[in-house]
TrEMBL record, chain A:
UniProt membrane topology term: Multi-pass membrane protein
Name assigned to this protein: ABC-type transport system permease protein
Glycosyltransferase listed as a keyword: no
Residue span(s) of domain ABC transmembrane type-1: 139-325
Alphabetized UniProt keyword annotations: Cell inner membrane, Cell membrane, Membrane, Transmembrane, Transmembrane helix, Transport
Annotated Low complexity bias: 1-12
Amino acid sequence: MSTPDSDSNSNNTQAITGTVPEREPGQLGRLSAIYGRKLITVLIFVTVGFLIGPVLITFVASFFQNWTGILPSGGFTVQNWAQALGVGAESIGAQRGLGGFWTFVAPDILFILQLPGIADITVSFPFDIRIPTPIPVALGFSVLLALLGVVINLLVGVPIAYAVTRYDFPGRRLMNTFAVLPIVPGIILGIAFLKTYPGLPSVIALVLGYSLLKIPYMVLAVQSSFESMDLRSMEESARSLGASWTTTFLRVIIPGAKQGIISGSIICWTLAAAEFNFSYVVYSSGPRPFSLFLFENISNNPFLRAAAAISIYFVIVAAVTALLNYVGENGFSVGGVR
Amino acid sequence: MSTLDESSVLGRIRETRLGQVIFPTTERGRKRRRIVALALPFFILATFGAFIPLAKMFRISVSEEFLYAAQGWTIEPYRQLFASIAAFIPIIGTELSSTIAGGTEAVDDVYGATIWNSLWFSAITTVSSVILGIALAHGLEKYELPRKDLLITLISFPISLPGIVAAFMMIVLFGQTGFLTNFFAVLTGAEPLNIQLTGQPSGTVLAITGLFFGYLYSMIPRATLLLRGTYAEVNTDAEEAARALGATPMQTFRYVTLPQIRPGIVGACILTFRTALAIFGTVLVLKSLSVVTFRFDQLVKVGYELNIASALAGVFFIFTVLFTFLSLRYTSAEVAQ
């Protein structure tokens, strides 16, 4: 058994490493043969529990009145959600909510009318105006902000992905690495942005930052779609049938990569909506991005209200992930700098 | 008359190098124009979004006056920074730092300590999450598991969560009212206050353990997905042959699978390490360890020492770029795509 077999065995492994593994498995090898598979299976389920468990706990706890000990208690309530969303009469809850108020604080004396002969007439306006921003408006703003970033990502990411996939030119590999790796961490970019464009409205700065920080995900998603297409022959047959290059690109190539473009957009949207580091540094005025609303809740509010605020976010992400699966992609394609 | 003039101007433009890119006469030239046109939006975005702000930040780091406009030139922030880094080095540090700082008084080693914290903590979390990622990717790729698609979706879910939410998840598990804290408190009879992993003073073992899990929460999903891409390309015929020839599962992994996935592992390490260095939200909420990103925030928002912050950012940026490009170049790393 051993002599003819070990010969072929040594040939086989020499192609990979120089040493021949022990023929007889040691104690560890035997243990791993018996328990290895079970161990890794358990590890997978423990990890899923570690990753998803707190999400479920947060979600469930947000519907309870208090939480001490292992399990939440105190009965079912939607109060935490109402407070986090700023719905309802309590002004403190509403102020910390996503919407908040656009406030006009009236000065004590508006103006003094001085007319000859009569005593001065003081005109005052004792009412401060506080216009509550409805939650749908504020939420819509946050969605829109991330969406604008995605539009820029599309305009920038699709062409560069096509260029590095279809054409061969000097510096292609470098450009590929450059487009695919996140250039700078969000917090550094944020500080640099603040000093370079001090007068820029937060809205524009945020959209620019989102599009720049999330571009690698778009390029990767679109590129994987392009790589599964025979770009050269598609382009050549369209050209030979009389289409101009621009027409070919817009009406043949892009529709072909629809799958990657859609999944790339969804990934970029989710990540932009969740972007915190950059928003935290850059945001100064105007309606607040969603991630800052989360931070406000986590750092200042009672535990269960923060849980409710985060649960709102989970609902959004779960909806988007479901959409992503519906589009036909399992999970996200690659990780990067957050 | 005027049309003639224009055409001669156009003609002269056409003769220049740039003109030949814009108005090509050959098919090759037209192809070059297409590549330039396709790459142009990206470069415009990168220039205005990244290069100009980064250059501006570098300018601030070497200027004497920076509150209103960057004026003057000095290398003082870098001198302070490197003196502080040198002061952190044991044995030779004190002498070296006073040489760099040019003074006699002792230099505070706070930046050196911060950078060291970032490096060792990122390295430990990277190694841990990549090892876990290998095991997870192995199991997900090779074993028959129920609802595998669901498992993969669940494992990738935390990628879309920002760092602050990862920190909150740790509070949910390990905080004073946390699920696991109270579970172990009931089990061992200890006070939750003494075994909670969040809300402890910065730098203590318990606090750092809590932050460790917080980092892992963001990094395991990324590492697993990167390695799953690598595992998809492994040649299973060789593994089956090895098993048929009598190798144990461990030997098969050690001698057949591992050599094939090694480039993917190195690539995953590089990307995960970069991720770990850039994590900020988790630290901001948990406040367990002073890492570089956290220090930026303090310098800018609390102390307004923008020049040192810029210098630190510059060193950080150059380090990440050099690290990425050199390690991609001089190792067998493959960044799975």
